[in-house]
Amino acid sequence: MIKDIKGLHHITSMASDARQNNTFFTDTLGLRRVKKTVNFDDPNVYHLYYGDEAGTPGTVMTYFPFPDVMRGRKGVGEVSETQFAIPKGSLTFWQDRLSSNAAGNLQADTVFGADRLRFSGPDGEGFALIEAQNDGRKAWIGGGIDESAGIRGFSGATFRLHDIAATSELLAFMGYQRTETDGTVTRFVMPGGNGADVIDLEALPKVPFARQGAGSVHHIAFAVENRAKQLEVRKALMDTGYQVTPVIDRDYFWAIYFRTPGGVLFEIATNEPGFNRDEDTAHLGEVLKLPARYEPYRDQIEAGLTPLAA
Ligand code: ZN
């Protein structure tokens, strides 16, 4: 069994409009934009990162905004909901804020004993705010939402699957513990994780597969401390039969990827070097950062990207 995974690192989704996406995450949700860069495989598209002050692993929601891409079709084989942790007692604040900011499908309920507010993002993506009892993580308050309500980071994520058996086995191998089942949803928790510790598996045997597009999660990344641990995890996964990519340099972390039996693309990402690798923590996310290989084409790349609101 793997012992080095510490919960989630980041979740990466697709959006149809960079400006709208940026406004929703920085204004409505009050997260900090911690990096403005491009998709390293397609530099004509932004890669935007939103999180806490430093972009701590377990807080980072990232987006590839592909202008005018078709909306995804929801289904199985994907991450269906991204869960954020909010302080106890702040659900009403969020209900008011989201209903006056055009977030769709607001629905409050209770899950696994915690109060939850579900809603849709600008591209229809599934989100939930979950009141957390003892979350010691600090909110980013520079976005105008104070400590009493600010998002702490991810609580976790929900996957929709035809069958949860193979993914359950994989999560157990990755160090997750199976806890409770509530209806069609089975919960897994990472003991000693970074706070973004929950994976919920929802079994929907009759629902068709999802089709990726705007609002779909592209992949979900799990955190390891450093490159040495990442190589150990890679070997353990390959020894178990997973086809894992070589280590890829993403400038702010090192990444490996593999497709899971239920269809969800997993990444294992390092906590090092972090988002202050190429700019001061005080000014994260302000200017466009490019990987070295695209620096010679900066003018051309910048001219093709929609300016974001300040
Ligand atoms: Zn990633």
What does this entry look like structurally?
The protein has one domain: 2,3-Dihydroxybiphenyl 1,2-Dioxygenase, domain 1 (Roll), CATH 3.10.180. It is globular, with a radius of gyration of 18 Å. The strands form 2 sheets. Strands 2-3-4-1-13-16-15-14 form an 8-stranded mixed sheet. The chain is of the alpha+beta class. The chain starts with 7 loop residues before the first strand and ends in a 6-residue tail after the last helix. It has helices at 18-28, 91-99, 165-173, 227-239, 298-304; strands at residues 8-15, 32-39, 42-51, 60-65, 78-87, 104-111, 114-120, 126-132, 153-161, 177-182, 185-189, 198-203, 217-224, 248-249, 253-259, 265-273. The protein binds zinc ion (ZN).
Unreliable stretches: none
Q: How far apart are the first and last residues' alpha carbons, in Å?
A: 46 Å
Helix percentage range = 10-25%
Strand order of the largest sheet: 2-3-4-1-13-16-15-14
CATH topology: 2,3-Dihydroxybiphenyl 1,2-Dioxygenase, domain 1
Taken in chain order, the helices and strands follow as EHEEEEHEEEEHEEEEHEEEH
Which percent range describes the beta-strand content? 35-45%
Note the main attributes of this structure.
single chain, 310 residues, alpha+beta, 2,3-Dihydroxybiphenyl 1,2-Dioxygenase, domain 1, eight-stranded mixed β-sheet, binds zinc ion
How are the SSEs ordered, and which strands pair?
Elements: E1 8-15, H1 18-28, E2 32-39, E3 42-51, E4 60-65, E5 78-87, H2 91-99, E6 104-111, E7 114-120, E8 126-132, E9 153-161, H3 165-173, E10 177-182, E11 185-189, E12 198-203, E13 217-224, H4 227-239, E14 248-249, E15 253-259, E16 265-273, H5 298-304
Parallel strand pairs: 1-4, 5-8, 9-12, 13-16
Antiparallel strand pairs: 1-13, 2-3, 3-4, 5-9, 6-7, 7-8, 10-11, 11-12, 14-15, 15-16
